[in-house]
């Protein structure tokens, strides 16, 4: 059983349907020393009630970047894991991830994503996300839905840029890559929801991500609501 201290930070807003599954998957890991922090943005459903019943720490959140930064302020461990509320961890995820993180001497890492709802979604993600992020790992970092980072590096970067409206997670990874070692974890994949694609449409959502990528490369971080992207679903 692993015993390296780890702080898991989860920004939430009305996540009563997804939070129980995520917390169960975290607590079911082969891991001894773990702290869970929920940074809540004034949920109106049972999110807070669920978090309290599971004995996790609750702090005041906001938009995802703000929630993550607030959670990090209270984190006690020297290693931080930021997770979206609608993901969950497969068996031995933390053990495999942290072992690889250490062996490769990484300071920040992200994960390949595996949708759970359909075969089409898994194929789509493999072609349009997992393959590209592995290909671009050393040149153009991507980090969505799950980020593992040393707290020392996170503080040096001043955390997530709260002025960014979309892809603040990719921005963190790209700023980190300039001064530290970034990698995509190969031996553990993160299970994710496709609720945004289902709600907003596959083509519309994919195009937003594509044009956001171009904006980041050729113009810079997206600091306006040009893509009309709803940060919480």
Could you walk me through the main structural features you see in this protein, from its secondary elements to its overall organization?
There is one protein chain. By secondary structure, this protein is of the alpha/beta class. It has one domain: Spore Coat Polysaccharide Biosynthesis Protein SpsA, Chain A, CATH 3.90.550.10. It contains nine helices and eight strands. It has helices at 19-27, 47-53, 64-74, 93-103, 119-135, 151-156, 168-177, 195-200, 202-218; strands at 6-12, 34-40, 57-60, 79-83, 87-88, 108-115, 146-150, 182-192. The protein has an eight-stranded mixed β-sheet, sandwiched between helices. The longest helix has 17 residues, at 119-135. The chain is globular. The termini are far apart. The relative contact order is 0.16. The mean pLDDT is 95.
Overview features:
alpha/beta, Spore Coat Polysaccharide Biosynthesis Protein SpsA, Chain A, 233 residues, 8 strands, 40% helix, 8-stranded mixed sheet
CATH hierarchy, class = Alpha Beta
- CATH homologous superfamily identity: Spore Coat Polysaccharide Biosynthesis Protein SpsA, Chain A
Tell the overall outline: globular
How many DSSP H or I helices?
Answer: 9
Named CATH topology: Spore Coat Polysaccharide Biosynthesis Protein SpsA, Chain A
| Total separate domains | 1
Termini, distance in Å?
35 Å
Total strands: the figure is: 8
Order of helices and strands: EHEHEHEEHEHEHHEHH
Could you report the average pLDDT, rounded to the nearest whole number?
Answer: 95
Q: Strand share of the residues?
A: 15-25%
* Widest sheet, order of strands: 3-2-1-4-7-6-8-5
